[in-house]
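Researcher: We are triaging several targets before committing to wet-lab work. For this one, the compound of interest is flavin-adenine dinucleotide. I'm pasting the protein sequence and the ligand SMILES. What I need is the predicted three-dimensional arrangement of the protein with the ligand bound, expressed as structure tokens, so it can go straight into our comparison scripts without reformatting.
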Amino acid sequence: MTAAADVVVVGAGLAGLVAARDLTAAGRSALVLEARDRVGGRIVNEDIGDGKIVEMGGQWAGPTQDRILAVAAALGIATFPTYDTGRKVLHFNGRRGTYTGTIPRISPLVLADVGQAQAWLEALARKIPTDAPWTAQRAERLDSQTFETWIRHHTASRSARMLLTLGAEAVFAAEPGDLSMLHVLFYSRSGGSFQRLIDTTGGAQQDRFAGGSALIAQRLAAQLGDIVRLGAAVSRIEVAGDKVTATTVAGRFDCRQIIVTAPPQLAGRIDYEPALPHWREQLTQRTPMGSVIKSQVIYDEPFWRPDGLAGQATGDGDGSRVVFDNSPQDGSPGILLAFLEGDEARRLGREPLEVRRRTVIDSLVRYFGPRAARPERYLERDWQQEKWSGGCYGTLFGPNVWTRYGHALRQPVGPIHWAGTETASQWTGYMDGAVRSGERAAAAVLARLPS
Ligand SMILES: Cc1cc2nc3c(=O)[nH]c(=O)nc-3n(C[C@H](O)[C@H](O)[C@H](O)COP(=O)(O)OP(=O)(O)OC[C@H]3O[C@@H](n4cnc5c(N)ncnc54)[C@H](O)[C@@H]3O)c2cc1C
């Protein structure tokens, strides 16, 4: 067979670029076909002038995310700590309070209620085999209930339920009712613990990449050169004998093995010939994406810092319920990163930009006072609206998906392999998981290619 390449990789996000890096390093030819007109997928930098950027997609890394940190270090990209000095703000039940550390100053009864539920969750999570969560003890039972049902059964107070809901929204960009309990446990375990997912220092939000996370994708792509083709959405994958053909608007590409790195929902939109087995087809019918709008609100300076505030806030009101200080490393300009997640992203995503902007800024005023009302600029990206992501941060597994279809997530179908952060068993949903998945898929393909 005359192959355009030994391997075609669908998608030039981190998973696809890392897979291509490993394939070419092993002496194999590869082609990376990317639908967008840029590389990076769910990571993207936006220029704000003066040589500075903000990250509109994935940005943080933390302890045990060794693979993304290694890839960045090899490309000469340094990290710096997320600003985490000072008091954090909690606006809850109509009242504003500040606190240090990870435990807000609220009623001890509510704290005990949340603490007990979280301890229970962490204990259950420790028992989940992340390579095959559907084999966990009582997997069926855990998978047949939502996180919302579980929270209701394991908390006594409305406030505790709300705090756990805020945690779920921040981690999944979804509501507890969107998520299978087994998925919440798997996801927590895959990052170490639920606590690590929500922590700044010591957790998933600990560090940022100098120059922005998208620099990692840009430098990987630069090393790969012209084997990365942009504007090349794969619409069809055809397997005939030992030949695989990927069809794009930019032409048809033959190969021996193919790695699809798009999240399952988007992978399911490709036309496969012959049709995929029912278990894979039905998995992709059941894997929706989360709902997030990421806003960067830019001020002349980080005015909250002299007040002793860390620029981190959470609350149960309208608008942003999760805020971080996202100023550049030198502290200029001052930037508050305000997420709209789950129902707030769904609701405000239907409003005009001006309504959304005002609602986000009003929430910042509640957290940080009247100076927050006067930003210099407001930037946002609605990932629900991104054709080639379909939502973010990642895939939501609702009830009965892991136990019925989990086995189909990574299992190749003939010469078709599946990668992308959703297929990772460590740090699934994160950039680190994307890198791990690309490395795994490349190794599997290399083992199969004839020498
Ligand atoms: C707002 C936001 C905040 C986040 N925050 C963090 C964070 O702080 N830390 C962290 O670790 N992670 C974070 N994430 C998640 C992280 O960005 C992702 O886990 C990671 O980038 C996924 O990489 P991937 O390569 O698996 O998938 P993707 O980046 O989605 O790459 C898949 C690629 O496939 C392309 N594609 C899709 N369909 C086709 C097709 N048919 N043909 C050709 N190409 C196709 C897409 O355009 C895309 O480029 C965040 C994500 C978002 C959106």
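Researcher: Any quick observations?
Model: The chain has three domains: 7-42+213-276+413-448, 79-102+200-209+290-388, 107-198.
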